[in-house]
Design goal:
alpha+beta, 4-stranded mixed sheet, 4-stranded antiparallel sheet, 11 helices, about 50% helix, globular, binds flavin-adenine dinucleotide
């Protein structure tokens, strides 16, 4: 049983502790699922998470606010049991994040579908020539009758191919660069959306390269104001970046648990592995990395929930530290497992593959460092 003492930290209210206990029980009974067919697994997970009520927390209906501590607790708990369960929950939130934060009343109808697990959401920002460099977005949305016509390509889109609805970012041209982008709600059955390629990655999940070829959307599909797309995207990432850290934290806790179990059960040189001080050194570093990650993740979440308009610095610190720390923790867990650590099918072997992308998506680690440095320099008046 992993350490649950963090739930007593002052970042949490009793409702968070109750939710964590209930989800722990649900996750123990329902996870992990079979990953053999990832599309089917994700569809099943979205339906199950919706039916059990967990997806209600992935978005905010009219008059509600996203509770970032709840998002993070759910992601941490699911990731500790099953990476695909975390992915399925997270994408409902990220995919519909723009609608939760800026959506009009009619747009919120989609949110109710994704929160019930009846529709699958996706977030389409990245393009072949603009991943970190969002201001370089080339997909265009030009006025067309009472709406817009979208043309371009989006790549590395999670849930691409199985999503029922996308939030897509395109250039409307109010100003050059980042100030000329807008966000749109795009149902997957809109004519002109093509899945050009399904992308295989080291920890499989539904992922695709999309082509938009004359996709016509009504004016009401725009989320937020014309030209506000960059602000919409960054506000969504502000909320969801700490939750990427929370998922990494869940992976790291699973790796630490596996390493502790292995170190106490495996005998070498006539004694448990855990008796070796060098192994204890690894375990200490892992436990420290886990707690430091948890502190940063829940500090960021608490700051947002306490009313901060933006938490770019705290979110960047949480994502950067938690994902990098989880990579270290998992790597040490693999080492403690010896040869079994790299054996396909071992928990630590799949964690080793699962953690890697978290240091790249929703802003690579280097980008998080820039955000933190800029905040520090601004504070110093530079
Ligand atoms: C598994 C997976 C799922 C994804 N899901 C989605 C999704 O659902 N929706 C979506 O829109 N996108 C998604 N992405 C795309 C992801 O957000 C981008 O891959 C990421 O933003 C990096 O962009 P890039 O791949 O173009 O790399 P580049 O922008 O080319 O960057 C390459 C590397 O350069 C370094 N770097 C970049 N900028 C700087 C800088 N300013 N200073 C210093 N170093 C820098 C970083 O190390 C970075 O990793 C996903 C990616 C993966 C791998």
């Amino acid at each position: 049983m992993p350490d649950r003492s963090f739930l007593d930290w002052p970042f949490f209210e009793s409702r968070h502790r109750a939710l964590a206990a209930a989800l722990e029980e649900w996750a123990a009974a329902n996870l992990p699922v079979d990953h053999g067919d990832v599309d089917a697994a994700c569809r099943g997970l979205v339906a199950a998470l919706g039916e059990a009520g967990w997806l209600r927390h992935s978005g905010a209906g009219a008059g509600e606010r996203l509770d970032v501590r709840t998002l993070c607790l759910i992601r941490e708990t699911l990731a500790r049991r099953d990476g695909l369960a975390d992915f399925s929950f997270a994408m409902q939130g990220l995919g519909m994040g723009a609608v939760s934060l800026f959506g009009s009343e009619p747009q919120r109808a989609w949110l109710e579908e994704t929160r019930a697990g009846r529709a699958i959401a996706a977030f389409a920002l990245t393009e072949p020539a603009s991943g970190s460099d969002v201001a370089n977005t080339a997909t265009t949305a030009v006025p067309d009758g009472n709406g817009y016509r979208l043309d371009g390509e989006k790549t590395y889109i999670s849930n691409g191919g199985i999503a029922d609805v996308y939030v897509v970012f395109a250039r409307t041209g109010e100003a050059p660069g980042a100030k000329g982008l807008s966000a749109f709600l795009m149902p997957a059955d809109t004519p002109g959306i093509g899945i050009e390629e399904r992308i295989e990655v080291m920890a499989p999940h539904p992922l695709a390269h999309l082509r938009l070829d004359g996709v016509k959307l009504p004016a009401e599909a725009m989320i937020g104001a014309p030209g506000a797309g960059f602000k919409v995207a960054m506000s969504v990432l502000d909320v969801f970046r700490p939750s990427v850290g929370a998922a990494a934290l869940g992976f790291a806790r699973r790796a630490l648990d596996a390493a502790l179990a292995r170190a106490t059960s495996r005998e070498i040189f006539g004694a448990p592995l855990a008796d070796l001080q060098m192994v204890q050194g690894h375990l200490a570093e892992m436990a420290l990395d886990v707690d430091a990650a948890a502190l940063l993740v829940y500090r960021a979440a608490w700051t947002k929930d306490s009313g901060a308009a933006r938490i770019s610095r705290e979110a960047a610190m949480a994502k950067l530290h938690a994902t990098e720390a989880a990579q270290r923790v998992i790597d040490q867990a693999v080492q403690i497992h010896g040869g079994d650590g790299v054996r396909v099918g071992e928990a630590v072997e799949s964690l080793y593959r699962e953690i890697r992308a978290l240091r790249i998506y929703e802003g690579a680690s280097d980008v998080q460092k820039l955000i933190i440095a800029r905040a520090a320099l601004a504070e110093a008046g530079r």
